[in-house]
Amino acid sequence: MLKFLFKNKINVELSIKQYKLNLRNPFGTAHSVTTTRTNALIEIKVEDISGFGECGLPPKKPLCYLADYNDIETYFNGWIKEIDEKQKQFSQQESYHYDAFNKILNKEYFKELRKEINDQQQQQQQSVYQFLFECLDNCKENSKDYSYASRCAIEMALLDGWGKFLKQPIYKLINIPESESLKPFYYTISMCPTMEEIMDSTDFGSKYTGFLKIKLDADVEKGMNIIDSVQKRLLSNSKSISKISVDANSSWTPIVARKYLEKLSPMANIISMVEQPFPIETLKTINQDQKIDVQHLNEWISIKKEYQDKGLLIFADESICTEKDLDGLVQLVHGVNVKLEKTGGIRAGLSTLLKAKEMGLKTWIGSMVASSLNVSAAAHLLCSSSDFGGDLDGGLLIDDKTQLFENDAFRLLDNGLIKMNSNNYGVGVTFKNK
């Protein structure tokens, strides 16, 4: 924790703590099963306004999920050190301005936050957020691979507090209007250990939305049985399916992908996408000395066309971290799943979405297993910058007891369409104990 007086006038408190979450059902993917998560929760208090940020921390996976709580704490301490050092060099009298959004070339984004402020009181309070952003952008820990998730949580807390101070939701701070066409909210049916748990998850999720994301591994027979069982369960409960997203979590081989194509192509009208069928190592290597397997890469390039010819789209998830990954991915996928923890926060997430669209890729906003705080932050990009909506279901995946926030930034309409709550400021959630 750090407490200090900014320019000898404004009280600032910075803190980090573990955010332990219990899941309603075991959350299974092709590479892990968890029943609890330990995320990081950041609080930035400027005078009497608290901003909160959270980063979801799945089990570490090379080339993809790079941080645990200890890493976030290490980064946070590095950021505090940067703040402390800059404070000592800081002139308390001079006016201060820092454009935290200068890497986003289109100056219409974050237009109001870029401006120099004439009003003395407003200038003092807003300059705190600018100062903290400058320290974040110059933190020596930014070269570390775990910095992206860390920056995501800190930036979220900064924008939450700044938005509350200005009485604006984050999407209005960004200066992006909510799309007239409401985007779908997907609920994730994970690979629970038993079919009974999968059906329990189906029953729970379908109360909120007709858009479902189903996790599958390389066992085609088991995977198709899960899809068939979910459909039958919904039919027996008189629930309709709007769309299904299939998530392979980088577990398929080309042979498996072609077997699934046979089975999935008759259902193409209800399948929105097939997410990350190919291994992360198709385009990335753990060791710099390793070379990409060109034959393997070419197989997946062919599979993209085979899926496209059958009316199915392939999206990247694990393989897309920052906008730097897009150039390689465009040959393999039709779209990308952008997550704030992997890009480094809302600013970098927006940049990644904008570049993806420029390249003709479709966009989807994803979330880690996290609370309503985290998914509500992602909703501010989804409402205007996503083509396909997203899986912002983290607040539903965890139980009510460990959920520290309420009053989400959005509500669900018409069997799962996301509508932003424009009167909720900052991220748009409320801390239950305050």
If you had to describe this structure to a student in words, what would you say it looks like?
With 434 residues, the protein is an alpha/beta fold. It is built from 14 helices and 16 strands. Strand 2 and strand 3 form a beta hairpin.
Strand content: 15-25%
Instruction: Give the CA-CA distance, first to last residue.
Output: 19 Å
In N-to-C order, the SSE pattern is EEEEHHHHHEEHEHEHEHEHEHHEHHEEEE
For the largest beta sheet, what order do the strands appear in spatially?
A: 6-7-8-9-10-11-12
Give unreliable regions as ranges: none
Strand segment tally: 16
> Could you tell me the radius of gyration in angstroms?
22 Å
Major β-sheet profile: 7 strands, parallel
Assembly classification: single chain
Helix-and-strand structural type: alpha/beta
What is the number of helices? Answer: 14
Helix content: 25-40%
The shape, in one word, is: globular
Mean pLDDT: 94
